[in-house]
Protein 1
Amino acid sequence: MATEPEHHVDNRGTTGCRAHSEYASAKRSDTKRYARYFHGMLERGVFLAPSQFEAAFVSLAHTDADIAFAARAAAEALAAA
């Protein structure tokens, strides 16, 4: 089975891209914690995909300030999740 990178927040609060090599690995993901993280990011003005199994991309349209803003929001949202 081919693996595709999938955005996730695991039960340690780690976020990023990681290939799920099997269905069982995806089933272990903490979807409730991702939901809290997702809503925390929305509250801080950062819009993410509502599913942790979707990818997020940085583009050349994002400035250094945009990336710093999102990084601060992510740190706060993860700490609150």
Protein 2
Amino acid sequence: METQLRALESLGVKTENTIAILYPLVESALPEETLRAWERRRSAFEDDDVKDRLTELMDFLRTEVESEVRISLAKKGFMDKKKATLRPSRPQKEKSTSTATD
């Protein structure tokens, strides 16, 4: 979204005009769980400036994505280690060697 905002600015579109539309649009597109977390965080700072609110929302979403990636990596790493230690070991088959009496 940052890229799109910069592209609009390069075209001469003022961000103040677009942010008033984008903020509620982005907020309404969030999953309910994310929106609840955002509302809890947003209530900690009551900023009347829409531009600051959009910046805060984008920072929040970036943090959420980074957290999800870290959680996913931690779970994946843990599960791989868990599978490796819990995997039953197969008994080794003894190799039979042919002898002249066989």
Protein 3
Amino acid sequence: MVKYIVKSAGRLGKGAFASKSIGRGTDIAVALIRKSNTKNPDKDFKRTRLGRYINHSSKPNTTLVKRKNRYVLVAKRAIEKDEQLFADYEKLSFADLSFKKRR
């Protein structure tokens, strides 16, 4: 899998950045691992280091793809070296678990 680095993302705190150019459709790394099935996402999933540092964007450059009990971050488009990796939190859905929007 392609490597990433964690560094300052300005007002967003820290973020994950591509350590080299990443092609569209390339697996970046595992972001979440299912550890149980209580229907409570805070208890059911362990975030990996990458999962902790993905920031939100309504125009993300990555998406999460389920592979067995893991969710892998995959490039939605070509990503340049040093470009920050983003996911759209509002559109996260897991095939086997419904998330309700938290307020």
Protein 4
Amino acid sequence: MQEGLALLRTCPMCRHQFDDTAVRVIEERSAMRLMHMSCGECQTAILAMVMASDLGMSTVGVLTDLSANDAERILGTDVFSEDDVLAFYSFIEQQGACRDLAQSKHIHILDRK
């Protein structure tokens, strides 16, 4: 896996090499690592999941505004259930927030003229 990790040493935004202190393993399970990298040059942060198998190495990365500490903290929290999402929707619907947002003069999602 170390050879494949060498590919993650360059910032995808500015091509600056990550410092060793800017790369942190957030979680490690057998052949998978979740890593946080932050670029000292352009301040871009990336969460990347690196997986190794008999067929080779695969990486999925996403730009983020999370710090490595935030990523570790969030990783330890419970996930949202469908009931949580529906309860939140009901709450904001009762407050009229969806209607107010949809009617805002600053939001032009439905106005395609």
